[in-house]
Amino acid sequence: MRAEAQDHIDKIGAALALLRRFLDWDRAVRRLDELNAKVEDPTLWDSPKAAQEVMRERQRLDAAIAATRAIETECADTAELIELAEMEGDEAMVDEAVASLATLAARAEEDKIRALLAGEADANDAYIEVHAGAGGTESQDWAEMLQRMYSRWAEKRGFKVELVEYQAGEQAGIKSATMLVKGENAYGYAKTESGVHRLVRISPYDSSARRHTSFSSVWVYPVIDDNIDIEINEGDLKIDTYRASGAGGQHVNTTDSAVRITHIPTGIVVASQNDRSQHKNRATAMGMLKARMYEAELQKREAAASGEYQAKTEIGWGHQIRSYVLQPYQLVKDLRTGVTSTAPGDVLDGALDPFMAAALSQKVTGEKVEVEDID
Fold first, then answer.
1. Cα dihedral 271/273/274/280 (nearest 10)
2. Beta strand 258-263 with 268-272: parallel, antiparallel or unpaired?
3. 44 vs 52: CA distance, rounded Å
4. What is the pTM of this model?
5. Is 121 inside any structural domain?
6. Is 371 within the bounds of a domain?
7. Does residue 322 form part of some domain?
8. Number of domains in the chain
9. pLDDT digits over 88-117, tens only?
């Protein structure tokens, strides 16, 4: 069999193996049988709320199991077709079957990622915060590049992006920005991007054309709805108002409508300046604060489940999750999963799905990869 065909088959097999592991296949099949029996019980709808939960769980499991079986069957049938076509010397049929395997591999990968987005808040909209690290204009310019990268990624997925907070840099770039990304599974996809991102390039701000290293941090947390109750003591809050300004000093307000809230016990700081109404900005900022506190609780649960704890650290050496090198060579490397790209221009234009997929998979497998950083 052609190496290309075998490569597609191996990728399909890896995706399906991870899906089966994530679903706990034997338990999932038994559970689906139990749910099918419950659906046939005429007393199920005596409690509409419980019935709806049963139907939702059944639909999710049935879809995941059916999709996995369909891909397995199609992969086996196509592999058999290739072997038969090769024996008969029908190169056209082989080419067509290999193309089908490539399409099937992409489908298996997409199904795998959808299945992995089953966390408590994965389906929710997301806030993405970007903060420049130390280094002045260099880091502030890098922070703006990251902001654009996530905006482009969201747009390519058909998500809606709103700029909630924006603090321009002194000369260029941004000190910080917060985006609200609206779309199905926005948080589930983006949550693995939290961490420090490192850029290595020839600085456009250095007249000597020296190579500079810059750091910026990204923090992703889910938008929460009214069903999630987060209690906040007003006495624990420090609330500041200030005059908002948009990118490049445009849209300057003449009143102190922007709101910044600091939660003193945790040190969490959120801000909103999207609206000209101070009241609305305060409501938005309170929603963001509740979301940050909820995300912190999710992280604690995940840490407890994995037996690990990874605190948010300073923006600097040794704490980055990904490096982007633009000079003297072109390479982006994820330091958690080892995934790389030799097209940083594409990555900075929003081609983030391979990095997100690998990080999501790693959460299921728990496998640690020894990755050396790049200079």
1. 80
2. antiparallel
3. 9
4. 0.74
5. no
6. no
7. yes
8. 2
9. 999 999 999 999 999 999 999 888 887 788
